[in-house]
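Record now logged underneath.
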Amino acid sequence: MKRLLSGNEAMAWGAWEAGVVFAAGYPGTPATEILENIARRKEVDAHWAANEKVAFEEVMGAAIGGVRALVAVKHVGLNVAADSFMVFPYAGTNAGFVVISSDDPGAYSSQNEQDNRYFAKFGKVPLLEPSDAQECHDLIVKAFDISEQFKTPVMLRTTMRINHTKCLVEVGERQEREKKQYHRDPTKWSVPNYCRSLRPILEEKQHELAAYSESFEGNFVELNSDEVGIITSGICYCYAKEAMPDASFFKLGMTYPLPKQKIIDFCERFEKVYIVEEGEPFLEEQIRAFGVTNVVGKELFTNVLDLSPDLVAKGLLGTEVKGDFSKEIGILTRPPQLCVGCSHRGVFFTLRKLDVLATGDIGCYSLGSQPPFSAQHTIFCMGAGIANAFGFEKAGTKDVVSLIGDSTFIHAGIPPLIDMVYNKSKGTVIILDNDTTGMTGHQEHPSSGRTLKGEEAKELNIEQLCKVIGVEYVKQVDPYNLDETEKTIREAMAFPGAAVVIAKRPCLLMRGERNKKRIPYVVNDECVGCGVCYQIDCPALSEGPDGLAVIDAISCAGCGMCASLCPTRAIVLSASDRGLKGC
């Protein structure tokens, strides 16, 4: 049967079909929907882990224990799990183990570009790359078979275009797998004690996988033109086919280890062979190392940002297949901004007012680094904000605070907070607690009281956790209350030790919050057009034709932050002052 599926949906279906029993991960675009879709299957136990390393190791345990298991992360998530990723191949696996790494060329929703194909080579793990949603389904099924055949973890690497593009996918029914027997054997599973004896076994496995790649059906040749040969993989196969449909192709579905002899034979057919790949010259470097000299790669195709059909056509033909439609249409730029009623706005307004150095983290609140607030001054990766602030303190910088979300705090913020307490920091940490993993689409986490399956769960109490760590000043504040927020942050910064302020208010975009009835604010005749209310940067506020403030009643979330700023008390609840100035 056929279904219209995105790459993420197809991978979830394929994993279910392959008999996966357990799946784990941490939300991260473009991979988030894989776990969300597989969690809908009653046969699969799926959950969000505290971070990617925990998810990877949980899935390791399940696979060693005898059931097929899957971990899905975005590219930087594999960095977090790298310690486990690099050591697991030494032991190999018992039942099928697949890790999906979803890269983000172009950094559309990430802090960097990163070509995780090198992880596979670095970790000596076989690597499969689909080029559309159908192959997402097919290759994940195949990945589990390869994993069990060679007793190795397998990496399935996708990119943003593959994850989110839909096509018709031929799918099947679930095939239940018999649980494999786990045998206690320290010489196999206690890697640190036996890594020296396990390394030759791992190396021999590389030779076996290289031989297997020569016959792997996902590596196939399409002979057309005798003049033009193209070696490619992933989404670039689609781009190259669109640019030069009559060329001959070597389409790679298994990109590590590469089918060396088949590639050499293919290249010998042509005077020149183009290697079309997105990101770094991963294929090109290996093929040149085979002694092949008639290839052309990164001198024609950039390694910066993502490729497109136009860029591939320009590299192959020196011309574009399509024009730049964005210039013809005249698309308006729309910079991202915090949502109407976002509680983070109250914290950033306060920090800007206090003029403090704020080291930040990854999340919706990253927008606080942009105008008009410009109140977050460093952002690198998850958990770095707290440690960065401590570093600034060691450098003698005064008035430093760090910002981190509730999910990110659980993911990577607890160890640096422990370090602050242990090493006698006087820094202030502000936890922006909106009760969800907001930036990736409102996923559950240990402090939300819900699981990925929608079940009620024990709710982690962040306030108590901070106190147990040893933080003596821990105070929760409603960020809608600007006066209380400012007072609390000032107190925390003056405290002679590590301090934590928890700015707690549920995200308004969560389903339960969206359904609540809210009373919008309006502007009455007391408005003098001073513009003070605009300092909160709410999209529901604008300047009317008469120069006075106007509130869009449909957009207004009723948070009241603008009302608390108004010096003339011209902003009031519409229920108490109907018919006055406003939409």
Residues 577-583 have pLDDT under 50 and may be disordered. DSSP finds 22 helices and 23 strands in the chain. The chain has four domains: 2-211, 220-321, 344-514, 521-576. The CA atoms of residues 263 and 287 lie 8 Å apart.
